[in-house]
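One example given next:
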Amino acid sequence: MPTRHPTTTPDGRRSAPTATTTRSRNLLDPGFELTLRPMRYPDFYERYRDAIKNTWTVEEVDLHSDVADLAKLTPGEQHLIGRLVAFFATGDSIVANNLVLTLYKHINSPEARLYLSRQLFEEAVHVQFYLTLLDTYLPDPDDRAAAFAAVENIPSIREKAEFCFTWMDSVEKLDRLETRADRRRFLLNLICFAACIEGLFFYGAFAYVYWFRSRGLLHGLATGTNWVFRDETMHMSFAFDVVDTVRKEEPDLFDDELRRQVTDMLGEAVEAELQFARDLCGDGLPGMNTDSMRQYLECVADQRLTRLGFAPVYGSENPFSFMELQGVQELTNFFERRPSAYQVAVEGTVDLDEDF
């Protein structure tokens, strides 16, 4: 049966659909492709299959030892943990909403939508993990309620949320990417999602968790974070693959203006995350302070810019040796686990080239 697809006018607008026997020309063409054969983007399908192998459940995370560790923390460290779990309580919900309201709607590939469906499941597991974390760490109901309302009552977390909404909300009301400007707005949404939220805000949060782990503390939190780390790395890699595909199909979208916007966006993300670090670290904790976190965030931001094909701007090096090891250590350890530790046995090789 012929499928109707739009054509493109010289000004970049999509005209009314015309009946053809070919599939959508580009990944961001408006429409809703349903046919998996012939498969236009097989790499997206393979990412979906890989994600299925990465199944874990919150019930596997043992937080009992963390309760005793929490009692050993200094007041400054307890403040850091309280702020950190408050961010976790809302961060993945922002990501999940954007998946449903924007990415699934506009990435016109059934293979990609399979992966996004799986990613939405993983974000739900993360939300459940953070719910369980708060129930364990904050036994007082009022404290838990305050943590879940962090976007409203904690300025450093509200600033991060406002950054997300600034770059992501403008696409939510778009039903179709009709113009070149629409597709650029979508790209900025996707890059904010991948490079800034999952690729910077969460990687900043991971650093605090692994700082505690390097001191022999909060192993339950670290275990769950290991699996979240694995998921988020795959989410980010998929999103960057989508960006790469759009770059190949519509290279004119990747001009100096987009480079400037992305660079500015990451600069804003670094400053928002640094404000969060000032809140968490105060005047500094042993081995963790605002200056070292700034250096770490700048290093991560440069990695994201480089992955996107743009020039790095900071030139900072990673100050946290425990994060240098994390990418290789967890990706390796995950695949060395017995299959009985997960619902699905894992086969094949692992790419250890992903930056921390």
The chain has twelve helices and two strands. The CA atoms of residues 149 and 157 lie 10 Å apart. The radius of gyration is 21 Å. The chain has a mean pLDDT of 86.
